[in-house]
Amino acid sequence: MIELRVSLLAVALACVPPAFAQQGDGTNTTYETTVFKPDKVEATAERTKSLTMPQGFKVNEFATGLKNVRVIAISDKGYVYVSRRDQGDVLLLKDDDGDGKADGEPVVVANRAGAHGLAIHGNKFYLITVKEVFATDIEEDGRLGQLKMIVSDLPDSGQHPNRTIAVGPDGMLYISVGSTCNACNESNPESATMLRVSTDGKTRAIFASGLRNTIGFDWHPKTGVLWGMDNGIDYLGDDVQPEELNKIEYGKQYGWPHIWGKDGVNPQSTPVGGITKDQWKASSVPMVLGYDAHAAPMQLAFYRGGGSFPAEYAGDAFLTFRGSWNRKQPSGYNIVRIRFENGEAKSIEPFLTGFLTDGNKTHFARPMGLAFAKDGSLLMADDANGVLYRIAYARKTENAATPMMPSGDEMKAEASKGVGVPLALTRDETKTNSPIEIAVRSSSFVAGSAIPQRHSEYYDGVSPPLEWAPVKGAASYAIIVEDPDAKPVTPVVHWVAWNIPAKITSLPEGLQEQPRLTEPGGVLQGRTTRGSPGYVGPRPPVGDADHHYHFQVLALDKMVEAAPGADRDTFLAATKGHVIGKGELIGTYKQTDAPLK
Fold this sequence. Notes:
This protein has two domains: 2-414, TolB, C-terminal domain (Neuraminidase), CATH 2.120.10.30; 421-589, PEBP-like (Phosphatidylethanolamine-binding Protein). The chain is built from five helices and 41 strands. Strand 9 and strand 10 form a beta hairpin. The chain is elongated and about 80 Å long.
């Protein structure tokens, strides 16, 4: 057993990177924090028998000696795949005789450094490491074909290297990318997010942000809505912050690193660009349910019915908690049941407990992977002693629930918002009786010509310098950059910026990519199609014909009331009836050859 009390101030300073210095705001907070890691003991048969679960369920060892077993995925044929992070491989296990135990020794079917998240869709198998995603086919005997890399440039990991991946009901890959730190302003907008990626890896966008490390997520089998459990911030005390159950929706921001829970404020952090924590809170979605701080949520799986569990469990979710190390009284080390009613989460209650032993001084499992097997049992991976546990309903199930499969309609509808609409200058929101035509130009390119490579995401990705003619009576200006030639998402939004003061009629090259600018002061930037604020340069598919990029400038008779990070449509709705002038500069871009980087 290791127990250590440390200074919150020292830990907090160690956790904040130097890139964004802390600003004085009057915060004066003291917490007591504990590092307590219960000793690991052997997973004996006697200890396994002491586990507690609801009446009618039983647990047995499906496989042992698996070492650092992490994520579980089950194929349509019932093949069981598990990743091992420390060993950097994927194991295949089978139970062909149906006795509830793996047959023989596991078979290594893939080797990749940092192997962690697994996903299966039909006959396709996906494996994710820290920065790469691989795809392959499942062969007849369960072995895997040659792995093909489809993504190579996910963000570096830092504190949270354990990427997870799943195929959504809309046929898209969803990837959880954890934060690089405990609580900081990330420099890479894809860190601390949920990404939505095409199955060939060629297109991706930030689906949701402000998620510190949502390892476990799944779709409700009736509603098709995505739910996930986020790991909370450390070193804020024994009971802060709670682990967060979130309904994860397209374009939403979930609070991290500045706001936690429903309205909790992180005293360690400072938003960039002069954004206040109240403003950050107003733009954040509060958690739906909370659970004991530091319990460490891992893999989440909905029970879709059709298995051996009683019908009352259908539509509920199960989740592993790996267990705390930052709490005097340990939390987690268990499996919980998340009860849902009419598609909404109502409560979190214990399902399988007892891995903590000797008065919570020791443990014999740290629950990690979780998945329903083809026979309807629930498999749980323990990455401490390397055991794969099988939880089954031991009685005959009467009136078993009809199997449910989530529809992809919800996810498709969310991701299609703002797709197939006219360019900003021709939309109803920007119509005006007698608009003043604004001359727009750039020192980087002239109208109708090629945009220099440095402004492309293939290269430097810096915003081009822009200038425009002043408009009499304007209180502010706004910029929207769109590409109507992109497919299948049209138009692609590359930049949304507003509340440019009336006295400013030019912007320099290379503006910051953050929700609010301090130079020019107070300018707000919104969500692009990539899902991040600030300018995103051209990045058309290699070999495409010229794409046309419309740099559209609006003159408005007021400052616009839209929150930092708002999307194009939200911003445009706030401009209706206030546009007094508009103009555009069109540049082209094509990428003939793939760049070296």
